[in-house]
């Protein structure tokens, strides 16, 4: 009795396996063997080039001092908006004892020289009245006396700068207070109270005290790959995405393309600049990192398919279409704009056509 039951169960299992195999054959094999298709649809295709960079002020100014010393007072701080001429810092002269002594002695020597030349000029004037010397000799003594007067004035002004930090010249007031050169925001402060300051002159660059910028004039500065730069031209529209402001998109216009490349991370890139448009009340800050899509071309509402479905042979593009009766047909199509993912189809297939997905390539 038990043996008969086992035989019956074995027959049922065999019949079940055979039935499953028969059904698989009738259904065209397993799911892996099924024909995969993608339907041609309408959509937008945008050909664009990626630029990587940051938001920066169009003009950024380094504030420097014309006199040496140490920072003694601060009148403005980072983030403050100041007008041109507003006070920023006060520089207190900090001369060495030797500099003070030398400057004072220099003034005394100049004053002594002036006194001697005054006496010489008076003597020459008396001789000229008596007709004992020519006119040009008197004029030469007069010029020497004038030069000595200027040397005394210069020595006195130099001493005043060292001792008091300010001096009034004939045409302007020179003082130890650094004033803002523009209307703008203070972006960075490079010195603190007590820090030494090197002056700006023809022989040295001087200490950068602050950096300032007019934040109403911001631009995007970045680079594009050498592969894309040949397709770009000034005036192209740009869409900018800022990493620190997700969901915010700022538009702009490509305004400058560098004529010279540079190398970054072993890649050849070209610097570009983009003028920003309206930011819709979004506060933009200098230094934001951003990506910019330079729109090279755009097609809206066109028939398109994934570019991977198209096989190219020279100037000929072909796709395989699945017909309604289940058969396949190879068609030559005319293609248009591509964004490297989707490609525009100008003719050869219509919207809704089922394009056969080519089988995956086997890795040998």
Question: Can you walk through the features of this model?
Answer:
This protein has helices spanning about 1-25, 95-130, 135-165, 225-230, and strands spanning about 35-40, 40-55, 60-65, 70-75, 80, 85-90, 165-170, 175, 175-180, 185-190, 195, 210-215, 220-225, 235-240, 250-255, 260-265, 265-275, 290-305, 310-315, 315-320, 330-340, 340-345, 355. By secondary structure, the protein is of the alpha+beta class. The chain has a six-stranded antiparallel barrel with strand order 2-13-17-15-14-18. Helix 2 (about 95-130) packs antiparallel against helix 3. The protein is elongated, with a radius of gyration of 42 Å. Mean pLDDT is about 85; it is low at about 1-30.
Characteristic key phrases:
six-stranded antiparallel barrel; OB fold (Dihydrolipoamide Acetyltransferase, E2P); Elongation Factor Tu (Ef-tu), domain 3; 364 residues; elongated; alpha+beta
Approximately how much beta-strand content do the residues carry?
35-45%
**Uncertain segments:** 1-32
Number of domains: 3
Largest sheet: 6 strands, antiparallel, barrel
Overall, the morphology is: elongated
Arrangement of strands in the largest sheet: 2-13-17-15-14-18
Helix percent reads 25-40%
Radius of gyration: 42 Å
Question: Given the helix and strand composition, which structural class is it?
Answer: alpha+beta
In the CATH scheme, what's the topology name of the largest domain? Elongation Factor Tu (Ef-tu), domain 3
Number of helices: 4
| CATH architectural designation of the largest domain | Beta Barrel
User: What pattern of helices and strands is seen along the backbone?
Assistant: HEEEEEEHHEEEEEEEHEEEEEEEEEE
Q: Mean of the pLDDT scores?
A: 83
The count of DSSP E runs of length 2 or more, i.e. the number of strands, is: 23
Our measurement of the CA-to-CA distance between the termini, rounded to an integer number of angstroms, reads 57 Å
CATH class of the largest domain: Mainly Beta
CATH superfamily placement of the largest domain:
Efflux pump adaptor protein, beta barrel domain
């Amino acid at each position: 009795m038990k043996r008969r039951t086992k035989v019956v169960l074995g027959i049922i299992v065999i019949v079940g396996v055979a039935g499953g195999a028969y059904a698989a054959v009738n259904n065209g094999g397993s799911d892996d063997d099924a024909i995969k298709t993608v339907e041609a649809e309408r959509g937008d295709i945008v050909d664009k080039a990626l630029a990587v960079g940051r938001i920066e002020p169009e003009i950024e100014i380094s504030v420097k001092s014309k006199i040496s010393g140490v920072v003694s007072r601060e009148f403005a701080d980072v983030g403050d908006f100041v007008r041109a001429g507003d006070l920023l810092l006060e520089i207190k002269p900090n001369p060495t004892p030797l500099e003070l002594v030398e400057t004072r002695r220099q003034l005394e020597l100049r004053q002594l020289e002036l006194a001697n030349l005054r006496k010489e000029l008076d003597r020459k004037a008396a001789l000229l009245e008596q007709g004992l010397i020519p006119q040009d000799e008197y004029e030469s003594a007069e010029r020497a006396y004038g030069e000595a007067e200027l040397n005394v004035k210069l020595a006195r002004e130099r001493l005043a700068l060292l001792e008091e930090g300010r001096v009034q010249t004939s045409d302007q007031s020179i003082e130890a207070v650094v004033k803002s050169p523009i209307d703008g925001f203070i972006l960075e402060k490079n010195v603190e109270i007590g820090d030494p300051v090197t002056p700006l002159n023809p022989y040295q660059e001087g200490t950068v005290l602050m950096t300032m910028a007019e934040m109403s004039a911001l631009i995007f500065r970045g680079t594009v790959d050498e592969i894309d730069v040949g397709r770009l031209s000034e005036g192209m529209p740009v869409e900018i995405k800022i990493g620190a402001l997700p969901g915010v998109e700022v538009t702009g216009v490509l305004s400058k393309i560098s004529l010279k490349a540079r190398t970054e991370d072993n890649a050849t890139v070209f610097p570009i600049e983009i003028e920003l448009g309206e930011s819709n009340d979004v506060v933009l800050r200098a230094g934001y990192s951003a990506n910019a899509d330079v729109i090279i071309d755009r097609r809206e509402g066109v028939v398109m398919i994934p570019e991977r479905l198209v096989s190219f042979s020279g100037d000929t593009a072909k796709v395989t279409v699945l017909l309604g009766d289940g058969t396949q047909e190879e068609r030559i199509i005319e293609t248009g704009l591509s964004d490297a993912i989707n490609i525009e189809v100008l003719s050869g297939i219509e919207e809704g056509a089922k394009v056969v997905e080519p089988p995956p390539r086997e890795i040998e």
